[in-house]
Amino acid sequence: MEATDYQKLVLRTSDLKPSLAKGVRVIAYVSLWTVLSAYLSFSENTWIWLSGQVLYGLVVLQWFVLLHDFGHNHFFKSGRLNWLFGYVSSLFCLVPYAPWKWIHSQHHTWTGWHDLDPTQESTLPNQAKPLKNKIANICWLLGIPVLTLAFSFKNFWNLPRLFRLFPDTTKHIHFVFSIFLLIAVFAAQVYFVPGFLAAWVVGYCFFLFLSDPLLISQHVHIPQKISHGATVNPFSVKEQDQYTRTLIFPTWVSKYILLGFDKHTLHHIIPRLPCYHLNSVDYTFSGSIPWHKWLVIAKQTPAETLLFSNNNNTGLNI
To answer: Whole domain around residue 186: which residue ranges?
Structure first.
């Protein structure tokens, strides 16, 4: 992104700051849909139960969006509120909060460096394995939602890797607590709430089904740099547009379902913006593509090509 365009965008968004009132409204909005989805999901009527599961999958996606913002510490002005609701949101999407927060921070620091970004290093070309490729290809083609799940376990549940990436023992305590909290609360719900699994499993799988193409679209199959062990500098935020992709959704989907999460390039360029401000910024980046166009091309492309290749050596314009 040109420096002059970046400065203009910064000036246009300078007044968009964290707002307690807007934050509370968004949480209340998601919470109300969560309560309704839970109520429907415990129905004995099959169609009502199914509608509840579809709705629950959508609200889990929204809790993930909120987790994302809490991790950036910009949803509220108060750091304590961001931590508190970060843990709350993690209970719905089952992504440990502290690992997410610090891994995602490193992702923003090293976006564009394929081998230094901890969320991208596993998709380096030399990480491709025949068996892993076959499984990924079949699951991607059939829409079996395992890619997001595998990504989550590798990055946010893998304590040995987390301890290696972050030697600070204070962070280790947060990592262990975040994971223990999810296991304890989930186990308690299974044990004490009759019918919990039947009211949860399909909806959560629907969340994973939605997450796979949405999350995969954001950075894969985009040419990135590889440091090969050399000492390099991170790319500045105004340079990160060339390493990100934005899917274009209808305005109502972006605002009421995705809560602005689709404004991915804008988020990388100005990461201080809370999700409830993103839809108020009218700016189209060069890496934007209609969601349906990307999905059609991506689904015709083997997962191994999407994950372990880029535009330079496949010619795919996605």
So the answer is: 3-310
